[in-house]
Structure formats: C-alpha cells, structure tokens
C-alpha cells in the first residue's frame, strides 16, 4: 500500500510538472526541435549543391534538376553515422558529470536521463564499426567515462563498484590499448604525424580522469561550455564533410579535334556528367564551368579516382590504416588497377584524337 501511494504521488507530481507553464514550454520546445530535424538534411543537400555550383544560381538549378537526391542523402546519412555516437555519448557524460559533481540536476542532466542505456550501447557499437582507427581510443575513453559516471550516479552507496568502474577498469583498458596501439603510436611519431599520434596516445591516459567528479564550482562552467561547443561544432563538422562529399562520379571526356568547339578541341575535360541525351551531354567541370558537348565530339569517356579518398596518413596497425574503419578493414580490398593517365587532363595520344 505504501509503495502504491508513493507511485501515485510520483505520478501526480509528474502530471503537475507536465501541466505547469515550464513543462508546457519544454514540451513545445521539444516538438519544435523534432519538427526541425528533417529540415537539417535538406539544408545540407542544398548547401552541397550550392557549393558545387560555385554560387551560380543557374548551375544550382541545373544540378537540382538532374542530380539524384538519394545519392546526396546517402552522403548525409553516412556523415550522421559518425556524428550521432559522439552526440549521444557526450550528452550522457556531461549530464552525469554535472549531477555527480554538484548533487543537483540541470538541463544537461535532463538530457542525459532521456538517453536510454540501450541507445548508449547501440551508439558505441555503431561508433566501433564506423569510426576510423585513430578515433577508436576516444570512443573507448567516452564509453568508460559514461560507464563510470553512470555507476557513480546510480550506485553511490556501493563504493566497491565505484572503485572498480572508475579506477581499475579504466587503468586496465588504458594499458591494454597502449599495448595494442604501440606499433601505430611509434610509427606515427616516426612519420611526424602529430594529429594521429595525439589521437592514439592521449585518450587512453585520460580515461581515468573522465570517470570521476570535478570541483563543484567548475562543474557548471565546464559542462555548459563543452555542451555548447559540441552543439555548435557538430553541425559545422557535418556540413564540412557533406560539402566535400562527391555528388556525381568523377569522369574524364577526351574531346576530338573535329566537331567540337575550338576552346576544348583536342583536350581532356575532368568533371561530372550531369545529363546526356541523343545529341549533347551536359558536363560540369571541376572549376564549376557547365558545357554542352555534342556527343559526336566525345572521343572517349573514362572514370577517374577521387583524390579526396586517398589516405593522407601512412600509419597502419597490422595492415589497418588509421584512416580506415572496421568495415573498411573487413571489406574486400579494392581491385588493383592502374589509374588512367588521362585523368590529370592530358590526352594519351594527342595526334590520335580525331573526329
């Protein structure tokens, strides 16, 4: 009976809070945010096409007419796959850190409470599969911080559990990570790759510092500053990645000397084929120039590699490059084929290019 009365009292408190002006404002604010979520991918798609058109309205309209939205949406979803685990773990860590440090609740704590445990586990699994190798130590550190702060928050009366999950587990995990990453860390320092060396070296050592409370006076400023930084940088990072994502295959057109405009006759054009019909092909060059080329003037067409996908770091761990994810590591190796010598924009045999 006592338990039933307590549950009914809690229900009444929840109903009262929901009926209050503050509760109504929070509910309306959340509905507004959920309504705006679908608009964010659309805005990214428009920004990507605007970037590809070099701020030219007519070129933008041409791309909107012919470019498949599914391909652009795929780039947005793949980028979101990177960002969502970071947002989920950051929200859970910051909310729990504030409550453990101050003993009070805030808007960060409310956000943290709304993130279920199964969402955290799913986010860690998605990050482990989709994040690059050099970011996996950061993922492990965030996961350990989430686990340790959750134990501190929910099992404050069990000091033995707190010691295990906030001290011993991060120490063991950090030592294991250093043993596993030692070859890659040494290679990163030898290659002078500072960014990779920091990403592989720093997070395992910080894991123990992220699992416990901070001074109460600094908790509010620290958590709020980090939360605002994450909320501001996440859309910027997402937009930066989407803007650089390819919208069409990168191809080359070798133009014959006859039947083509004098400006492009005998040249190799590198860019994207927007559309083609039985008479002309609409071609977008890399500098944003749109050309309508007669099909009879095209001597050959070939596919070029995307230079943006070539790894910038040579650091690897057991043939696993630091810029590759688990999916890329387990996927079949790409076919070994030489790059077309015409991709830099030079005809293979200028004298043989004829109409």
From TrEMBL:
It comes from the Bacteria. Residues 1-22 are annotated as: Disordered. Keywords: Membrane, Transmembrane, Transmembrane helix. The chain crosses the membrane at residues 32-51, 72-98, 161-182, 194-212, 219-243. Residues 1-15 have a biased composition (Basic and acidic residues). This is Uncharacterized protein. The lineage of its organism: Bacteria, Bacillati, Actinomycetota, Actinomycetes, Streptosporangiales.
